[in-house]
Amino acid sequence: QPQLVESGGGVVQPGGSLKLSCTASGFTLDYYTIGWFRQAPGKEREGVACISSSDGSKFYAKSVKSRFTISRDNAENTVYLEIRNLQSEDAAVYFCAAWDFYGPLGLSTGRTCLGPDDYNYWGRGTQVTVSS
What is the mean pLDDT of residues 61-77? Predict the structure, then answer.
């Protein structure tokens, strides 16, 4: 059964850093577009970063672009999200998700990967708390 498991969340001081991991079991991530999403209490789930399966292109929400980095290690069947200079508004549950789309993404294609509705598999999330 396909599963995604997130890890690496925790309590971090403002300005600190975290690296979240998303490991798949029951399927290989190679041919999946992978996204990271977050949801804070009372707010909608928002896409923060995603990475293409075909060419490794990366896409970020404007609000996080300079501080978040998504990467994938297909050999480890894992996708990472590095968060730098954590701010209070980053506090949320972070989810990873897999979309069975293999192909190019971006403005020229008319396809994006930051919308949650396209994704097939979801992890249960990892909590990120920002507190001094």
Answer: 94
